Amino acid sequence: MRSRFTLTLIDTARANLDSLPEADKDTREVSLREAIRALTPTLRKLERRGYSRQKLVELLAEQNIHVSLSSLKDYLGDKASKRQARSQPAGQPTPTPAASPQASSRPESRPAATPVTAGSREPRDGGNASAPNGSGRAATTRT
Questions:
Q1: Which of 87, 101, 118, 128 is the one with CA 20 to 30 A from 41?
Q2: Distance CA 101, CA 56 (A)
Q3: Which domain holds residue 78?
Q4: From the CB of residue 72, how many other CB atoms can be counted at a distance below 10 Å?
C-alpha cells in the first residue's frame, strides 16, 4: 500500500470526487439520531396533537424506525429542563435569588473550606500577608 502520493494524483482524485453527483436517497443512510432530527418537526406536531412519546415510539416502529423511549426522550428532550436537571441534584429545590442574599450582591463565590486532618496542617501566616485572590482580604481556613 502506498504511503506517498504526487500532488498531480491528489488534484486528479479531487476533481473526480468533486464531479460525482449526490448519493441516491435509496442507498444513502443516516444514523438514528439524524433520522429523529429530520423527523423532529413532525414528531413535535404529533405531540401538540396529544400523542405521547410512548405512542410516538410505536408509530416510528411501524415505519421501521426502531427507537427506545429513553433515546427518543433524549433526542427530543427540552433543553431548559435538561439544564435545570444537570445543575441541580435530584430532590433539591431550585434556589431563588432571595434565598441567598450574598450570592446576588457579590458575583464571585468562595469555595467551601477544605477540612484539615491532623498531620496535614500547614503553617498560617497570621493574616498579615495580602490576599492572592485580589479581594484585599487574607484567605483563612477554618479548623
A1: 87
A2: 45
A3: 29-83
A4: 18
